[in-house]
């Protein structure tokens, strides 16, 4: 054991605790001991589909769309020919990975052989093996994945809506890229990206389950190097103009009823990480009041036959980007758009204390329920630590700090007329 | 049940009502499901399928859809959902709730979430309103649901595949056909609601911190007198002899989907059942990356992004699926079949067999963290007489040998080969500005 001193964090209200350590390798460790049957571990880097340009040794590196996702697929291969998936399967573990706009995350769940599985997780992600042949092979599999995504009308409505809102931000590209963009990826490029973006000072490991911090640290001591170079490969983003690209976009697909996606583009929240996080929570409460079945607007849309079934809704709130959206199906998507825009324009004045209190209580309860699942706990830590520079229990205080005025102000700011887009997918 | 991974108890509450109870303080949330179980029926099921969505549009105590949604939110974001499932010949409908255990209610709030949730579920299940306007909205949604299956290539392929696979049986879906739904009236809904609450069997599942005496008291208070003895419906298990039916259909999708339908002719109560389960783990279990389909069809041959198989225990059917590039359909089909032939010939490596066993062990253990898995498992066992618990299932799976798996593969009968040909394959995505 190499002098690993974990810090203990406890939350009395949640009756939960975890341990934190900045490992000598540079990796941040979050160990969350919990008497669950499944252990869930996530090893993640702050590198996703939107990281398309960065500086490395004074040189600008520009990546084709889909690089982060392609790399995620390829890291499972090993020089021995036995993929990491197979090794996990032998240990009775289920392995997986995902790439989001800002994160690449590798995970396993297991009910035994924790040391072996953790060793494999840390080893395969830090030992890339790329050849011309195995890169070419992956282009076929990912090409199939891209085709599958483009068959989902909901996804097409979403990505076209994003493209109508954003001109420069790489969020406008598919996470998997395109058949053409991934065709330009080479083994050399992948090695370069691994070296730059999979620097342990840019990564975290979260483990939740029936395990001690010392057991996790012992595996890290064994598998990881004793230090890593300082992380300098910061992503460069081009400034995004505040205006939308176009207010309306339309596609046709094999589909029963028109689908609509409405995006509200806003300026990024000013202030530090905590302010951005608070705005995100306030937005979550606001959109639930507006678009969920408890809202007067939603009730009217269904009662009057303007929309069919439920609305989906969400938001992205970061220091460089802020939008919220809602989507659904309607016979007349433009009418749905008009009615929704009319409804949200009145939001700042129509929110009542009672609605706000109820929604906030429900929001808190939903967060609390996440603490039953080792997967939810570990994945929430990945997101809060890598994207929000926040410790796991900070969310409780931030939820508490949101008041009705925060929500009203946000409603007045986000739902401006000129930054709305409507993306529709119509039947063939 | 002694020795079980999760300690559950089953109580016969009389009149066919049954409580499956798991008392545990392991979770912050409790799970409560209240279901009615009866015979799936071509005429009745489409009407019954509308009842739960209708109840969310308003009940005697919460007379509007907004009121029901607000009530769920007041109960600390109780995740209340409809159950409308089929299990072989049975139709299961009801309400499921994911609620905070009472210990986590905010200070100063002395309400009992559990009791209020029982009251709410009883209102939804037993006292819905049947207003014409709400009936119309639910019918439109149901018709939309039927039609919009084509919006998802995999769902559409599966629906078409099962239609062909069950071509010689009296097959129907719970949601019914469009014209059936069109004809449903408020009176039909009232009549069927009365029928199922009086004649179907009440099935309750609870996992949480409340003691069993409290739970049974609440059942008596809110659901006393509901239902009657469960009607026994024998499992329909058929084999297939002859050439497999081969069907290709076209639709405007980018991907192509291949589905193969095998029949075992084996019941859940037959000793061979476990060998078929193990076969599916080795051949194509979706979570087993050491399965033959994953290793050879996806990884070695790059023929697909996803592929797998699963075994349906109550009808002895093993569907096998892959999402492929349509121009490689012949390669994909032959590789999928070739891998099954390898198993028939006994070509199951030691590591493949060990990985499948390890995956079985993992899934059984993992169920301890997922009460909903126990609920489903125990319900199927109740209806079709399978293993009494997950431990019994696991113990029997561990006794299966590679030879038994090969024999099981050899007895499988290929009934249907279905291919949904995506006619947009290879078309570029438009990215106009």
SSE layout and pairing:
The complex is a heterodimer of chains A (428) and B (433).
Chain A: E1 7-11, E2 16-22, E3 28-33, E4 39-45, E5 53-56, E6 59-62, H1 67-74, H2 84-90, E7 94-99, E8 104-110, H3 114-126, H4 132-149, H5 153-165, H6 179-182, H7 187-197, E9 203-209, H8 213-223, E10 248-253, E11 259-266, H9 273-291, H10 296-303, E12 308-318, E13 321-329, H11 333-345, H12 347-350, H13 353-369, H14 374-387, H15 394-401, H16 404-414, E14 420-427
Parallel strand pairs in A: 3-9, 10-14
Antiparallel strand pairs in A: 1-2, 2-3, 4-8, 4-9, 5-6, 7-8, 11-13, 11-14, 12-13
Helix pairs in contact in A: 3-8, 9-13, 9-16
Chain B: E1 8-14, E2 17-23, E3 29-39, H1 44-55, H2 65-74, E4 79-87, E5 90-100, H3 113-126, H4 132-147, H5 153-165, H6 178-183, H7 186-199, E6 201-208, H8 212-223, E7 245-251, E8 256-263, H9 273-284, H10 292-300, E9 304-309, E10 317-324, H11 329-344, H12 350-366, H13 371-384, H14 390-398, H15 402-411, E11 413-422
Parallel strand pairs in B: 2-6, 7-11
Antiparallel strand pairs in B: 1-2, 3-5, 3-6, 4-5, 8-10, 8-11, 9-10
Task: Give a summary of the structure in a few sentences.
The complex is a heterodimer of chains A (428) and B (433). Chain A is of the alpha+beta class and 428 residues long.
